[in-house]
Amino acid sequence: MNNFEDLQNKWQSQSAVNATEDGFQALLKGVKSIEQKQRTGNIVQTITIIILVAFLIYVSGYKSETFMLGIGLMIGSLVVRIAIEMYSLKKLRSINFSKESNTFQNDLTSYYSFRKYTHYLITPSVIFIYTVGFIILLPLFKASLSNGFYLYILCSSVVFLVVFSVFIYKQTRKELSKLKELQMKD
């Protein structure tokens, strides 16, 4: 029993752990890195939307309901993804790093949970809807393009989808790992 009381006394006599300037700077650097990656993703997705709209106008696709459905699904899925990322950035910026430890920890945990939801539910849904939109366009491409160019588009889109999915998977794991690490540091 004496050992327990000694241990308890030592525990209670410990000084509170204060955040160091280095620890705070590392935390800010991690958050800024995540924020920059989200901004870059939004820029790439916005450029993709601009290209899709330009393509729609260039080929006068607005005259075909099927084309409008396919391109609409593609553009719509990207718009939803951008909106979610913008909301996520707003949520990240609203975390007050100078709050007391428990409040900050709760805010970071809430953000982490939201990002997991985004990455594991919304991102696959967006990719699926975007792919469905593209698949809807394939018969139109087949009818209006040469066989060789159609096969090129078909093969390159499959390769692109696989490479893009692996890239998103790696980035997702990296971001969630970084968020989890930031959670642990607090």
Give an overview in words.
This protein is an all-alpha fold and 186 residues long. It has 5 helices and no strands. The model has no long low-confidence stretch (mean pLDDT 82).
Chart the SSEs and their pairings.
Elements: H1 2-13, H2 21-58, H3 65-93, H4 101-144, H5 147-185
Tag the structure with descriptive keywords.
0% strand; 186 residues; elongated
Ends apart, CA distance between termini: 33 Å
Tell me the number of strands. Answer: 0
Radius of gyration: 24 Å
User: Strand content of the residues, in percent?
Assistant: under 5%
Gist of the model:
With 186 residues, this protein is mostly helical. It is built from 5 helices and no strands. The mean pLDDT is 82.
